[in-house]
Amino acid sequence: MNNIQAIRHTLWREWGITSVIVMKANASMEEWHAEEEEALHPIYSCTKSVLSALIGIAIDEGLIGSVTQPLSDFRLADSGNASWSGKVTIEHLLTMTPGFRWPDFDKPYRALRAAADPVRFVLEQPLAHVPGEAFTYNSGASHLLSALISEVTGTTAMLYGKARLFEPLGFSALVWSEKNGISEGGTGMSLRSRDMALFGALYMNKGQWGGRRLLSERWIEASTTMRHKGLLHYKPPIYGGYGYHWWCSPSASNGFADAYFAFGHGGQYIMVMPDQELVVVVRKKVTRRNDAVYSRKVIFEHIVPAFI
Q1: What is the pLDDT of residue 7?
Q2: What is the mean pLDDT of residues 12-30?
Q3: Number of domains in the chain
Q4: Nearest alpha carbon to residue 104 among 130, 132, 137, 129
Q5: Which residues neighbour 24 within 8 Å (Cβ) at sequence distance 6 or greater?
Q6: Which of 11, 130, 138, 145 has the greatest number of beta carbons closer than 10 A?
Q7: Are residues 44 and 164 in the same domain?
Q8: In 3D, which of 115, 101, 134, 109 has the Cα closest to residue 44?
Q9: Mean of the pLDDT values across residues 58-78?
């Protein structure tokens, strides 16, 4: 380890960073962990991007017709008195624009998780906006997507993903919480950092892995295209625009190259820069929300300039 690396690693510890992994063109370029043995840790809302992949696989398999289908096409809509179920589509859920009342920064999340029937809890929220117009970051929308996976596959998102994604990618271990037979949609997954990097590499490789197609290139392009400005202008710049449960960071915003990323509470990132064939995973101890900027500093001040 050279002096620059030693200085960086000292700084990363001061910032609360726990893991950094860099892959370039599928090769491991750098791997650092604050602890000698890396254990399973929560990835928080990075779970949403994994769930997006499972929705894409279900569409690829014909279990879901298209993202334009309204919720009223599915039995889950019967769980609550949602008069808006015919107006809200799968795409609205994926882009966090369903229109039902959900205060900023996921404020109802604790009530959602405590509810005896989380699906019903979401479906009982009143419509506050015209679907498709307002972006409201929303784990309730994510949980409906997980419930949808359960309905069309007859199993949990966890087990569906295990067969079609997690085992083919070679994940070393995985935990995903569930309630009432439905994997938690907005969060709840725990992974090792290396497996987070494998997931990012699948997207960088346009859905191909180990000679197999696990996810269609069409879905990857669709889900990582910015559909709404989301929180692109939030300061500090820890978020971005929004696609299908992926955040988007255009070059004009980050100063380097077009990128998209999964983001988890406190500064957990899976950043993909496809044109640079670069995948960066950064994990951080959870402190204050805006402290996630330290993870961004690792990516855009230390890693990206060195590898593009």
Answers
A1: 83
A2: 96
A3: 2
A4: 137
A5: 276, 277, 278, 279, 307
A6: 138
A7: yes
A8: 109
A9: 96
What does the block give as tokens for 56?
């894409």
Checking if the pLDDT of 151 tops 70, the result is yes
Q: Within 10 A of 109 (CB to CB), how many other CB atoms are there?
A: 19
Q: Distance between CA atoms of 150 and 160, rounded to whole angstroms?
A: 8
**Residue pointed to by tokens 């039995």:** 75
> What CA–CA distance (Å, rounded) separates 219 from 208?
12
Q: Which one is predicted more confidently, 43 or 308?
A: 43
Q: Which domain holds residue 18?
A: 1-39+224-308
> Is pTM, for the whole model, over 0.85?
yes
Do residue 232 and residue 93 come from a single domain?
no
Which two structure tokens, joined as six digits, stand for 293? 């900027």
Q: What is the mean pLDDT of residues 259-270?
A: 98
**One domain, residues 17 and 65:** no
Amino acid at the residue 224: T
pLDDT tens-digit series, residues 267-294: 999 999 999 999 999 999 999 999 999 9
Q: What band does 1 get if pLDDT is binned at 50, 70 and 90?
A: low
Task: Say if residues 254 and 280 touch (Cβ distance below 8 Å).
Answer: no
Q: Is the omega angle on the peptide bond into residue 168 within 30 degrees of 0, that is, cis?
A: no
Residue 187 placed within a domain:
yes
- Say yes or no: 88 and 150 in one domain: yes
Report if residue 113 sits inside a domain.
yes
Instruction: Tell me how far apart the alpha carbons of residues 289 and 197 are, in angstroms, rounded to a whole number.
Output: 23
239/101 same-domain check: no
Q: Are residue 144 and residue 264 in the same domain, yes or no? A: no
